[in-house]
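Quick question: who can interpret this fold?

. . .
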Amino acid sequence: MNQLRPMLVIALFFVAYLLWQAWDQDYAPHPVSTPTAAAVSSDSGNASGATPTIANTGADGTATAAQLITVTTDVLRLTIDTRGGSIVRSELLNYPVTPRTKKNPDPAPIRLLDDNASDYFAAQSGLVSADGAAPDHRAVFQVAQTSYALTDGQDALNVDLIWTDASGIKVVKRYTLHRGSYVIDLDQQIDNGSGKTWDGNAYRQLQRVDRPVPVYHNFLERISDQSRYGFFGAVWYSPEQKFNKLAYDKFQKEPLQAQATGGWVGMMQQYFLGVWIPPTKEADTFSSSIVDNNGAAPHYVIRTVSPQISVAAGQQATSSAQLYLGPKLPDQLQTIAPGLELTIDYGMLKIFAEPLHWVLAQLDKITHNWGVSIILLVLLINLVTFKFTNAQFESAAKMRKLKPRMDALKERYGDDRQKMQQAMMDLYKKEKVNPAAGCLPLLITIPIFYGLYYVLRDSVELRQAPFFGWIHDLSAADPYFVLPVLYTIVMLAQQWLMPPQAGMDPTQQKMMKFMPLMFAVIFLFFPSGLVLYYVVNGLCRLLQQWWMMRRHDSAAAKATA
């Protein structure tokens, strides 16, 4: 029973949290589709004082796509539109939309960038110049072939797109993809064949629509959809201002305008993100804007603009950047750019979630099964916290022993609660019983519960991670509700093993009887990995509770012999 009170507190906190998030998703202010200017000026630091303009266009653009080319590596399949040289689709080949099964052994891969109007998300780049020719993300490039693929033994793949102007300016936009990597190198090489100096700026931007509003059939279906609770929007980082989020409903009220050296801009969702990363020593301008989409869902743009580039007549210059299109894997992200690992959103309990994720990752290297790793994590936590839980059981045993004397105090003082409380405190002091000793495990349990919840919800490694048998995805609910039922049985066993504690009034006793049913309903919609954690943890506590009660009963029997 002493284990059920902490779980009741956790449940109430968690249900309140889910209710608040559901209300925020449904009733909080959402972005307003307000028409914006057709072009947004960007402070580029042009020496001549002229300010180049970066045109904003939606999915329709100014004309239909000139040509689509496909680029395939071992982990990515990209579709590049020769109009602008923009990447309009990116498929993550190692991350299927649905789990692989015997009936569906080759499901479609996740599409991060997408040119469908309802899910539009594109990585665009270009050059702008106040007084010279320059290809922006609407200019038409030429390409030598329409299909590129990384071959066996090849570690890198180059894709060149070429734009020329009658004035003598030539630009080669080169994408370089690497084996096993989600990082794409972009070089925009400017050959100045004109008779005068070319001045301009390079820019890179991500353009996206907000996610479609999901349709739910009931409230329980709504709160069980874990993807709705993760952040979906723009993000950016600078060494001075650190990691920042920019929700789509803040684009109009709090537009981004910042100078940064060694930063990046991106857009992220639950497990994946797209990020433009300028050179670390380049002082760029970060900005955001909203693009009207002819009455349809507006497009949100976050961009980075380089300092002025000057290319003398007959000379050549190159502007470089990197584009990351992939999963939020902490070990990889922290090696790509400073602060990029912060896009893994563990919420306010990051201090607990990150160590839990690290321990799970180390265990998975041994077990190669995240479910088994969760079980081992339970055993480790119980080993570390054994002393505290042991003190909790000791306190419960002593309180149970004092129950007849406490009942006598209630009869003696009747409705005089002040005198009764004072008499109980004197009794606790005399018998050296600390009724608050059971609260310490609660202080440990709650952070672990929430931390593990965030790990299971936002760690891409656990997405579609199978356990055994019927559980094919530890980040999703148990499809047959086996684990919630098992946990309910464990809670009933705890109730049966531990009689009501001293001082518990009839109302509390009734609440405790209904707790197993309440948890059965709540855990139906929790990630199965989290329910697995609490099934194993409940079994460990049940065994510990049985052992402590047996030991105390044996000691009491010897004392009375």
Notes: The mean pLDDT is 82. The chain is about 35% helix and 25% strand. The chain has two domains: 4-16+354-560, 31-345. The radius of gyration is 30 Å.
